[in-house]
Structures are given as C-alpha cells and as structure tokens.
Amino acid sequence: MGGAEDYSAHLAAVRAATEDALARSEAAGHPFAGIVFHSGCGILYHADDQEAPFRAVPHFKRWVPLVGPGHALVYPRGGEPTLWLYRPISFWEQPHPLPAHPAFEQLTVREVQEPDVLLKELGQLPGYAYVGNDEEFADALGIPEEACEPQPLMSVLDWHRATKTPYEVECLRGAGELAGHGHAAVRAGVAEGLSERQLHQRYLEAIGALAHETPYPNIVCWDEASAVLHYTAKRRGAPSPGHSFLIDAGAEINGYASDITRSYVRPGAPAGFRELAERMYALQDELVQAVGPGKAFVDLHELSYRGVGQILCDLGVLTVSPEEAYARDLTFAFYPHGLGHHLGLQVHDVGGLQTRPEEELGERPERFPHLRTVRPVEAGQVITVEPGLYFIEPLLAPYRAAQDPAFDWGRVDELAPCGGVRVEDDVHVTAEGRENLTRPFVVATASPK
C-alpha cells in the first residue's frame, strides 16, 4: 500500500516539514543541528519483567513503518537521513520481520545487532534534538534533557502531520479496506447473536491481526454497554436481550490507522430505538457531506450537536423545543464527546488542537470542552465524523433526581436498555470537498442483515 513513487514524494514532504520545524525552532531561540527520531524503547509492566505491547514513536513511523524498539533515524539539518536498523541476535527473542517497503531502497540504511554498537556508530550528538521516549538513549548520545522533544520543535512537527500526503491517504484507505473485512464478519455474527468475545475474535481473524496489533482496543458491545464510550469488557455469554449492538474497531497499514464505528438494531428492539438509529445514520451522512476545506470544525460539531438535539425532541425523549434543548445544553447528557478527530499515525492524531504551527494547544470553546480538534478544516486532512446518541445514566442522573420535566422519563427508560448509537467514518478532505474512505468497504445501515 503506497508505491515507490508515492513514498518518494512523501519522503520529500516529511523532509520539508522537518526543515521547517528546525527553522521555526531556531527562530524561537532553540537551534538544532538535526534530529534523532527514535522508534522508542519497550516499557515493562510495573514490578514485572514482561514488556507491555510495543508501539513505535509516531514521528519515527512517519519516516518508515518499522515494528520494534531500538531503531533510529538520524536527520542532519540540510543533509541526508540515515536509518539505523536494530536487529539483535538473541536466543531469547526474534527480530520482527522487515516489511516490504520502498523505504529500504530510498533511505540510507545501516544495520546493527547491539545497542552499544549503535551508540558507538552514532557518536556524540549534543547539538541534536531527540524525538522518542528513551531519555537514557538520548543522554548516551550527549543530547541534554532540554533537547528531548522540545516544544518549539514538536509543535511544528505535530502541525505538519495533520496534512496527509497521497502516500499517507493510500495507507489510510488500505487500513479502512482491511477493517472492512472485520466489520463484515462481525455484522454477520451480530445477525447470529454471537457473544461479544466471539465477535471480537471474528473481527481479529477476519483482518489477520492479534489484539495488540489493532490501532486501539476494539469496542464490541451489546445492548446497554453501548452507552459506555470506551467499553472493552467483551462478555462471554450470549446477549440478553440482544436488541442492539455497537462495534468501534479499526486496522493498521504501514502504521496508519482506520477508526470505524457501526451500530445495529435487531428484531425485538423498541420501534423508537430503530428510528433513532436510522436517524443517526442519516445525520452522520449529512455531516460528512458538510465537510470541506475552509469549514470550521467547531461549526461542524455544533451542527451535529443541534442535529442530535432535534432527534431527541422529535422522538419525544426531550419534551422541549430543539431551541430550548440547545440553550440549556440538554443534548450534552446524550452526546458528551466531540464530532471527531484527526486520524493518521495515531487514532487521535496530533495537530488538531493547534491553530498555528508554533502553538502547542489552542483553546477549546467553553461550550464544547471535549473537542479533539479546533483547527480549521483544510485539504489534505483526514478526520473522523462520528456523532453519537447514548443513554448514559451518570449524565442523566442529576436531571432524573430533579425530575426535570424537559425529559420524558418513561421514554428514556424504554430506550436506555439499548445503550446508544454511534456511526463513524474516516473522511479525507479534498480541494473539491471530501472523500469518504470508509463507505466503499463498510456498509452503513442499522440492519445487521
């Protein structure tokens, strides 16, 4: 996924972004002779000798999609990068196989088998910045603590990551296609009424991955568990009553992630919940069509917020007008998260909370404090569009205790056992508008058949 020509252009873009970061960092009073991008070191579980599943440092992965710790890419300012492969020989463990990727033809590559050899070959680099999670490695290179991921440098690197190259878009498209196999397998299993754990295993089998190889823990939930936004329990037993189901699961290609959510309604569910789900699919489609360059993401979120409020009022869950529901922020009790986020080397990718390259974080609107992006929508970005509507008792409890007449509590109690609905696609912003990277591979319907 992502051919040699696309990767060559991608490499040029990453180099340009790195040079811009170095120039802006120098202008801010932090000059560097280059950057050491490190894949990172493993992390042990507390009081244990076992390592947690390893994830390479994303800024390193933007250069090359290598799995495993200890690799380094050294970029001298104005010069040519060198990729150092750490390939230990040990009877305890086996190095990860190298992927078939054009990086190994287009980068200068050196291979070492011992950490000490790598440090010796690199020598002292006190004028360099370090990007990674191993300060001991940086210290061994003579890089001081203040040069480890300094904010003036990192903010610019993060900013550029939000604009995807054609190579990156193809990787994200491929990740969506791979996830599509898993979603199809799960949709069929939902019609059969399989358990959460069985459906999770079906998904992994369909995409050919182990659990730690997915970009985030799969959310696979029946009924009321759909109202737990990051539910990961995966119950063993058959669903009861098995009226509603939600899956939020992605896949990874060359280090780039997909992030896709579907909600299904089975026979026996309250008619009102089926209508709610169908309305949410329609709203999500409207929101995707509203994406385009020059749009303010905050405005898109407000559009989704008002849309969810309209559904709640139309279905009689809220007894007030949509205008009053918005003015009183009643929708927040049912839709507490943002419309979406940037997607790339990380599921919640960096750069979305910046409004300019030198800025670490912009300000979220007071009304919507949970937004993951406030950045204007621009061509080249890939964002998720994922409105949700849930019956979350901890958020409803204060209104229930006060018996707020703006809520039809009988209607709430009728629909709450079904949990909630979320629909999520990955959207590439183009100069002309948008491209839905998900819909070619994952059906968008509330029916599991």
Overview of this protein structure:
This protein is of the alpha+beta class. The protein folds into two domains: 158 residues, Creatine Amidinohydrolase, Chain A, domain 1; 271 residues, Creatine Amidinohydrolase (Alpha-Beta Complex), CATH 3.90.230. Helices cover 35% and strands 14% of the residues. The protein contains 13 helices and 15 strands. The chain has a five-stranded mixed sheet. A hairpin with a 5-residue loop joins strand 2 and strand 3. Helix 1 packs antiparallel against helix 6, helix 7 runs antiparallel to helix 8 and helix 9 runs antiparallel to helix 10. The longest helix has 27 residues. It is globular and about 70 Å long. It starts with a helix and ends in a 13-residue tail after the last strand.
> What's the name of the CATH homologous superfamily of the largest domain?
Creatinase/methionine aminopeptidase superfamily
CATH architectural label of the largest domain: Alpha-Beta Complex
- Stretches where pLDDT is under 50 for at least 5 consecutive residues are none
Structural domains: how many: 2
Largest sheet: 5 strands, mixed
Q: How many angstroms separate the termini?
A: 31 Å
Give the class-level CATH name of the largest domain: Alpha Beta
The topology string of helices and strands comes to HEHEEHEHEHHHHEEEEEHHHEEHHEEE
**How many β-strand stretches?**
15
Class computed from helices, strands and strand pairing: alpha+beta
